[in-house]
Write a structure and sequence with these properties.
alpha/beta, 4-stranded antiparallel sheet, disordered C terminus
Length: about 250
């Protein structure tokens, strides 16, 4: 007879992770034996001040850098042990990114930028443009499909970035200071969009920030100081509030 809540699946597992950088005759230890499990569907905030190691940890989790020691597993795959080609293929299938600086391709319009992840998956042009238009409509940019990045505001560019990150329904989305260049009103809108997409598709979000206000959108806040986890706190809050209220807006 089953009792208690169903055990959640671990999406990201970090074991004994250490990252060192050589600077001339000195060694800088950016991460010191990080152990961490992040569940499927969880919004996990990696929180810390500048120099705490949070960006380095994000790079390790996303496979953008190799650790000195230790391993990172996503969906049970040791991404730290994959070749560059294998890692690129894995990211295309399972990972999305939302960047602070948007990282949109200037020679592509909004619809084309959003469709890029589907192009890597071999989706036909007609189908990917159809899906791109649909998700841009969900983020309130139905009238901006043919606009180029320079023709859009920062908030609009970040909406395009969110649509691009979520269009292929990746298992994990890494959001690196996603509202750092936005005003407070747009920040709220962007974070509500990220949260609502994650809830709808049961996706794991790893949010990296130094902003305590942004951290409050997470289910869990993992605080780093000098490359170590010094606090790991679960949040208990009502998710039905803005996520459902903004359903039509996104």
């Amino acid at each position: 007879m089953e009792t208690g809540a169903k055990k959640k699946k671990i999406m990201i597992r970090v074991r004994d992770l250490r990252k060192e950088y050589r600077l001339k005759d000195d060694t800088v230890v950016a991460l010191k034996r990080i152990n961490l499990d992040i569940e499927q569907g969880e919004i996990c905030c990696i929180f810390g001040t500048s120099g705490s190691g949070k960006s380095t940890l994000l790079n390790q989790l996303a496979g953008l850098e190799k650790p000195t020691f230790g391993d990172v597993y996503i969906r049970g795959v040791a991404v730290t042990r994959l070749s560059e080609k294998e890692l690129a293929e894995f990211r295309q299938k399972h990972i999305g990114f939302v960047f602070q600086s948007y990282n949109l391709l200037p020679f592509m319009n909004a619809a084309e930028n959003v469709a890029v992840p589907l192009m890597f998956r071999g989706v036909s042009k007609r189908e990917r443009m159809k899906k791109s238009a649909a998700i841009l409509k969900k983020v309130g940019l139905a009238n901006r499909l043919n606009h180029y990045p320079k023709q859009m505001s920062g908030g609009q560019q970040q909406r395009v970035g969110i649509a691009r990150a979520f269009i292929a329904h990746p298992d994990v989305v890494f959001a690196d200071e996603p509202t750092g260049n936005l005003d407070s009103k747009t920040t709220i809108e962007v974070m509500e969009m990220i949260k609502s997409f994650a809830r709808r598709f049961n996706q794991t979000i790893v949010l990296v920030t130094h902003d305590p206000e942004l951290a409050q959108y997470a289910d869990r806040i993992v605080t780093l100081v000098d490359g170590r986890i010094v606090n790991d706190t679960k949040s208990i809050k009502n998710d039905t509030v803005k996520g459902e209220a903004n359903e039509q807006a996104i």
